[in-house]
Every structure is written in C-alpha cells, then in structure tokens.
Amino acid sequence: MESLQQKRNTALILLLVIAALVTTSFLVYRTPAPVGISAPENVFSAQRALNHLQQIAQYPTPVGSEQHQLVQQYLLTQLEQLGLKPEVQETSVYNPAWRNAGNIKNIVARINGVSNSKAILLVAHYDTADQVPGASSSKAGVAAILEVLRLLKSETPLQNDLVVLFADGGETGLLGALAFWEQHPWAQDIGLVINLTARGTSGPVMLTDSSRYNGWSIPQFAQAVTRPLANSVINDLNRLLIDDTDFLVFKQAGIPGFNLAYQDNPRSYQTTLDNLDNLDLGSLQHLGNYLHQLVKHFGNTEIVDTERNLNTNRVYFDILGLGFLHYPVGWVPPLLTMVIILFGYTCWYGVKKERTTVRGIFVGVAYLLVIIIASVALTALLGGMVHSAHPVYQYIPLAGGLWYFIGLLSIISALFFLVYNWALQKHEFYDLFLGAQGLWLVATVFISLMLPGASYAFILPLIFNLIGTLVFLNPNQLHWVANLIILVITALPVLLFWPSLLRTLYVAYGYGLTSILVSVLVLVLGALSLQWEKIRQWQKFALPIAALVLAIISTGYGFYSSRNLRANPQMDTLLYYVNLDRNQDYWISLDYRPDEFTRQVFAGGYADANLGDFIPYEDMSVIQTKAGLSSEFTDPVQVEIVKETVQEDFRELSVRIKSDKYVNNIVVYIEPSLLAGDVQLDDSFQIAWNEYWPVLRYYNLDGDGITLTITVVKDQKLVFRILTQALGLPSQLNKRPEHIIPAPTTISDSVFTLKTYEF
Known about the structure:
The chain is built from 19 helices and 24 strands. The protein has 759 residues and is α+β, with helices and mostly antiparallel strands. It folds into 4 domains: 4-28 and 332-562, no CATH class; 46-319, Aminopeptidase (3-Layer(aba) Sandwich); 570-631, no CATH class; 634-758, Immunoglobulin-like, CATH 2.60.40. The strands form 4 sheets. It has a 15-stranded mixed sheet that branches. A hairpin with a 3-residue loop joins β15 and β16.
C-alpha cells in the first residue's frame, strides 16, 4: 500500500514529466540561427539570400504585371552571373482541374552533372497573388535556390543534372509548373522534385508533402537531412485535401519528391503581411540548409525510377525533432491486428481479475462519447464568440490563434477532468479506462484504414497503453518507484506524438479542423487516465483548477495580442462592379460591418445580396450599393467572329477575344445547354464544358488574344458572358488607413466588368 508521501511523490513527478514533455513539444521545433553575410563562402547564408529578396519581394508580382517583368529580368541576370544559361519558357497552358488558362513565362536553367542519370528539379514560383509581396510564398524559395546555386559553384560537381524552375503562374492554377511538365523537353529527364514554399512567415521547415509513392524517397530523405522534421499524418491529410502547391503537378505525375514549407504565423499568408518585415530569417536559413543538404545528397545518389516505387509507401515521423523513424505501410495491418488482439486480451484479463465488466467497459465508452460531443458543441459555441469579436477571422486563421487554441484545449481538459471526477463516484476506474481505450481502438481502426500514414500516432500509444494496463490489472503490488517508471513509459508515446501533432495540425489547417482536434484531445486525455488517476489520488481538483487557470491566461493573452493592430491589422473586402449590359455599377463587399475604409461607399446604406448575382460562378453573401460611376467605364474586351462554318445540323464559330492591357484576367461563361460539343481553345486545348463549373478563366492575354472554337445547334444563338477583372480600385476612393489591409481573397480591390455577347 502506497503511503501518502509516496502518492504525493508519484503525482508530482508525473506532473513534472507531463508538463516538461508538453512544453518541449511546443518549444523544440526551433529554427536555426540565421547565418550572416560574412559567413564562409561554402555555408548557406540567410543574409545573402535576403539580399535577393530585397530586390524581388518589395512589391506584389501578379502574372503579367510590370513588377513581375522586373523580377523576371533580375532572376535572369542573377542566373547568368552564376555562369548559367537561363531560358524563358513563354507559352500558354490550360489546367482542366482549375478551369484556368493563361500566358506564362517560366525561367529555367540547367547544371549538367558528370554522369548521365535522372535530373533533380528545384521549384519555386516567383509570381504572387494580388496585393501580396510574397516574401515567404514563395520568393524565399527563389532566394534560397539562388544562394544554393552559388554554393554549388565552389563545390565538387554533382553526379546528376540539376534543373532550376522559377515557375510562373503558381497563384493562378499552378500554370507554370504544369506548362513545364507538359511542354518543356527537360521534363522527361526529371527523376526527383524539390519544391519550396510557405504557408506562413516563420517557423521551422517541415516536409509537408511527399510523392504519391515514397518507399524509396523517405529513407533517402532521412539520410540526407540533419534533424528531419516530418510526419506522414500531414502527408496523408494533404493527399486527402489536395494541397495546392506547384508540387501537386509533379506528385500527380508520379515523380518522387518533397514539398518543403514553413507555416507558423499563418495569418500573414496571402496578405500584404507576407513581406520582408515579417519574414523570419531563421526560417529562411532552415529552408536553405535543408535544400543544400538535399541537393548534395540526391545530386550524388542514383535516382530510382518511378516504376520501382509503385505501391510502396512509408509511415514516418520525427520524435520532437531529435530522431526520425519510418517503416513500410505494409506493417500497418499486422500492427493493427496485434493491437486488436491485445485489447481483447486486456479486457478479458480485466474481467477475469474482477477489475471491470463488459457492461462497465461500454459505460466507459459512453462517458467518453458524451465528453467528445460536449467538447465539439463547446468548441462551436466558443468559436462563434471569438469570430464575433474578431470579424477578420472569416479571412485568416486566428490572429492570436495558438493562444486561443491552447485556451480551448485547456477548457476541454477542465471539462474532462470534472466529468472524470464525477464519474468515478459512480463507476470503477477500469470501466472508464478500458472504455477510453476501446474508443481509442475504434479511432485507430478507422484511421489505419483511411489514413494509414497517421496510424502510428494511434497504434503505438495504444500498444504501450495496453501493456501498462496489463501490469496494473495484476493485483500484485510493485514498489512505488517501479509503478512510476511504468506510468512514465506508458505515457511516453502519447506525450511524444500528440502535443506537437495537435499544434502542427492546427497551424497547418486552421480553425476548420478544430472540432476534430478537440475530439482527439479527449481521446488523448482518456489514454492518460492511468496517470491522471495517480494525480487525482493526491489532489482531486488539482487538474481541473490548473486547466482552468491556463485557459484564462492563454485566452486572455490571445485576445490581448490580437488587438495589436500593427501586427494584426483589420481586413476588409471591396470591389467595384460594372454591368455593361444594364449600365449599372455597384460597390460590393463580403463584410457585413462596413469599416473605416468601406464606410465611404456604404455610408448611404446598403442591401444584402449574393455574389452570384454579379459573378456567375460565385455563391457568397455580400452587401451592395449602387455606385453611379459607370459612365467612366467602357468595354475592356473586343470580341469578333473570325470564322463560321455551317454544317447540316451545327454551326461552328471561332470567336477571337482580346482585352485591354490593364485587364488581369477574363472569365468566359457559357450555358452548357447551348453547346453541341467541347470548346476548343487556340487549336491547343479541348475544354469539356459542364454544369459544375461552366467557365474558363484566362490570365494575361497577349496582344493576339485567344480564340475559342464553339459548336452550337444550327438554329441556336450563341450567347455568352465575359467578366473581366482589373487589379486596383477607382481612384476616387480615399486610401485605406494603415491599420486596415485588403483581405486575402481573389476578388478584393478589383474592378469587374460584365457584358453579354450574342452571335
């Protein structure tokens, strides 16, 4: 029988171990110190890379803009100074998945290796979204590539060829990457792809995505990189959610490779805050270190053919950045079978020892399900309150997001501990504990089938948990120190995996995943019931009180930090829309609360509307008011029939569309029922028009415009609408205050015109 002092010692040590591992999991993922410009020539220097960024990331560079052309020229000059012979791949391309097309200008260069093998492709795009300087996404990748190319000049030549792709059109449907893969002759030589990007402006670099089959590439990655940060949970989720980076083009083509990104401070992503001031030089240093190591490794490694990788994948994960483990995904079924058998044996043993009952286990499952349901409901309630207090959060992840998230997890933890204390007054401990393990097993089976790359985070903790349970189900008493050691070992996989995973998943996917994450938190807390019980035996209300105190502190700090308007400015949307058919124009906004900037056009009142009433393919609630400026606008598009062929039952029309230079993109909308076949774009691309997405968006029309060949029934009129988008707002408006910036949408700060054509 443990003495009171022994219980106290056990509880305190467990608390310290848990607190230490949880804190470490949040703090261990650090970026390296940035290397200065005076560093040796053979060392990657973030400061030297920053010199490039200061030239290319001062302004937004959307496709076709003047600044875009200036950056293009700078990159060509830098590649030439490095002794390379860069080329501009200027072409048109169509992405059927996005229904986007456009004229793009890729910059490509090649360093020949000493052997004749597959080439390594380095990718980063140099265009940006509207209003976005793009210091991190993805010009940091461009700068890192330039710095690594400088390093390679003084090093032993690589065995494999190295191809550099500064892609265009990354923000307009991955057009540059697609154009390279489909049209450039070097594409057939590529054996491995390394794509550099970002989803924030700070944080450590992680492997966020790997190739469709990574049985060869992941072990190589582990050898190549010092302290690799990666897990197959993120990888499998990105497969499910289809991460829209340039890497997607090559992954879908079956090319081995890696997508590297840093993603802390996601509120800056795709906003004006993605600038040099907010760029973390440590993140840039980390990106460059990874890239240099990967290039050196794979540059001197035989690149395995894609065919040899078919149907081979790895489960992989780092352990607090200190170690990296991986094993074949084929191990998942036997591991799952083993854990099912182990759970069944544990339940049987518990019933045999009269520590639990079958009914009691189901009661334990029910309790945990109730807590999960209550937690999800509470999350929705609190999330609604936070979003009401911060309207800007409809556009970005929570500005004080991580602190709010910690506060939410703390509240859910307090709820768990309170229900747990109450339930133990009515039920046996092992009823609740084995019930928690049973629900964890259900989650394990589901995850192993749907996301096998995430299975390790469920299977391994449960194995340790069940083994520890079998020890404690035995009524034979161990020395309290031995009990403590077993308790620590049993908890290790949970504590090593899940605090960092919860943080990473929240940062990567934002508020939309929160309900799932709090559900997992409840499972995690249930899995640690052995440890909680030892602490509860010493101080019954220590855990719920500590959780509530942490919730108050973290939520308060989150609210305080979000009020820093310099770091977290307000955001709004405003667009000007002209219907040239009706000679009507409107101011439109997604914001239901006009702010200091948008109030100048909505001061006279506004009405609710749907954006689909103005832009055919959209469906969002908006506010609108008439503008009265339409007399200043003429049709920026020129449309003519260049050829018409009449057959027995059909009419085939070739329609040439040109636009004024200031137009960023046009959208052609045709009712699918009018068409008698596919639409042909410039004699190059067949477009299958359908009800789901009956539009074509074209970026950066050149002087010749585009030609659409359209077939209709002989006696049927061809009717279509063209929507144009020009970046910027009418000059009559006052400027935004410094504490307000455009929201990261594709429609904000734009002038749209719509006109219908009949032939």
